From TrEMBL:
Protein name: N-acetylglucosaminyldiphosphoundecaprenol N-acetyl-beta-D-mannosaminyltransferase
Keyword Nucleotide-binding carried by entry: no
Pfam families in the cross-refs: Glyco_tran_WecG
The keyword Transit peptide appears for this protein: no
Length: 259
């Protein structure tokens, strides 16, 4: 289901999104691992879609192996334009679903990123809920590590020694995807997924929004209340107007086609 194998996709603002459920996403990753193929799974929420619309990050959607819709506005827009996505597929959920399946299939997981000690605590939670899961390593890199050739070489050495099947990369978009792509070149049989703050949530550092807020597409409000200084401009100035444009553009486009 990569850019050569995935077949039908839904196009939103130029980004090709796979119309698959979380279950299909997990099954696809495991099938590809069985075939000896790795890749990059990109979970696109509204903030990521906005950044993908900017020149400095626009190449990442095409470089990802599979893109899924991590945001209800994307699902709404897909329905409005007549090419419905089946559901929202979030990175915060996928770290759990993939860990569960990895435990069943004996797959190895590496956790990269988040703050000091966070990946270790998240890994302990994954193992607690999925006995037998193999967490084969964690790494909390320092700021600017991606430009430090010595650190990157050491990180690659540690990853190759750990031989993970899955790497959850919690560095924030777009850094996590760029780092993942760099590592994927040397670990072509490994699947990488940028997961943002998912490890913080799994470790209990940051509470996740109530399921009702998730279902109505308001999880961003929960995040905004948690970190107003850091997120206010990004969410209110960039993301909300972008989401409105995305949804309205989808509706207008369908109306024009129906005339």
């Amino acid at each position: 289901m990569d850019k050569q194998r995935q077949g039908h996709t839904v196009v939103l603002d130029g980004v090709r999104i796979s119309p698959i459920s979380w279950r299909q996403t997990v099954d696809h990753v495991m099938t590809e691992l069985d075939a000896g193929r790795g890749g990059l799974l990109l979970t696109a929420n509204v903030d990521i879609m906005y950044q993908l619309s900017q020149p400095e990050s626009g190449d990442l959607a095409d470089k990802a192996t599979v893109v899924v819709a991590d945001g209800m506005p994307l699902v709404w827009a897909s329905h409005l334009q007549g090419t419905p996505l089946p559901e929202r597929v979030t990175g915060a959920d996928l770290v759990w679903h993939l860990s569960e399946e990895a435990a069943v299939q004996g797959r190895r997981v590496f956790l990269l990123g988040a703050g000091p000690g966070v990946a270790e605590r998240a890994g302990a939670e994954f193992v607690r809920q999925n006995p037998g899961l193999q967490i084969v390593g964690t790494d909390c890199p320092p700021k600017g590590f991606e430009s430090d050739e010595q650190y990157m070489t050491g990180l690659l050495d540690r990853l190759q020694a750990a031989a993970p099947d899955l790497v959850f990369v919690a560095l924030g978009f777009p850094k996590q995807e760029r780092v993942a792509l760099q590592l994927l070149e040397h670990l072509p049989k490994t699947w990488f997924m940028g997961c943002g703050g998912a490890l913080d949530m799994a470790a209990g550092e940051v509470p996740r929004a109530h399921p009702v807020l998730q279902d109505i597409g308001a999880e961003w409000l929960h995040r905004l209340f948690q970190e107003p200084r850091r997120l206010a401009r990004r969410y209110l100035v960039d993301d909300v107007p972008y989401a409105l444009r995305l949804v309205s553009s989808a509706a207008i486009g369908r109306l024009k086609r129906s005339r």
